[in-house]
Task: inverse folding
């Protein structure tokens, strides 16, 4: 990405936090970016176009987090809540360590403009995360009873809301807060983190093959 364009986007995100989504003006953003309004319009034709670019900029950073997280199927089976926490914690900490992005993201998603924008946007960059969700659904068939969009909104809205409270100083930014928020978030999923009979049989076969291989390697 062009460095000037990225600089404008960062100024746009900061401007929304400082002035609000509706209150921020192009002149506010240009001042934060240290550019003239004319220079800004060479990159973005309107405020709406800039706000959408800001959203994609943040959203893609979030998606990249999951590229660096690996989930062990065995951990998913033996400690599903622990596996979910390993996935969730870097996500939550991204937001608490990026206050401008958190406030912007929350306000943009809550705006009247977002529903129409959401219908047309391409979210292919979340492919890795979608694959992780499919893995969970395969291991815990009860999750398939939940609407996929509802499941994602539960995680997203809970995380963003509490992260917003942290960056605004309403909640302390510490491990205790993280643990309590996580418990609140997953309590609604507890009843769905139960494995089906077929999944248990497959897991049993995998453990059996692993034990047999270990025995053969030991020459027993």
Result:
């Amino acid at each position: 990405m062009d460095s000037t364009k990225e600089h404008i986007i960062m100024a746009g995100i900061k401007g929304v936090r400082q002035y609000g989504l509706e209150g921020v003006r192009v002149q506010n953003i240009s001042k934060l970016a240290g550019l003239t309004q004319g220079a800004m319009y060479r990159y973005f034709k309107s405020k709406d176009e800039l706000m959408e670019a800001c959203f994609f900029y943040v959203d893609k950073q979030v998606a990249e987090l999951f590229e660096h997280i690996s989930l062990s199927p065995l951990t998913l089976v033996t400690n599903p809540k622990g596996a979910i926490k390993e996935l969730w914690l870097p996500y939550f900490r991204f937001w608490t360590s990026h206050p401008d992005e958190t406030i912007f993201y929350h306000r943009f998603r809550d705006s009247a403009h977002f529903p129409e924008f959401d219908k047309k946007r391409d979210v292919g960059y979340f492919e890795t995360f979608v694959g992780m969700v499919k893995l969970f659904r395969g291991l815990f068939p009860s999750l398939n009873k939940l609407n996929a969009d509802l499941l994602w909104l539960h995680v997203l809205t809970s995380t963003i809301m509490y992260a917003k409270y942290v960056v605004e100083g309403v909640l302390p930014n510490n491990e205790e807060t993280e643990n309590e928020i996580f418990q609140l978030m997953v309590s609604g999923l507890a009843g769905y983190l139960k494995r089906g009979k077929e999944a248990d049989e497959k897991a049993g076969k995998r453990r059996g093959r692993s034990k047999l291989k270990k025995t053969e390697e030991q020459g027993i």
Summary: The chain has a mean pLDDT of 85. The radius of gyration is 22 Å.
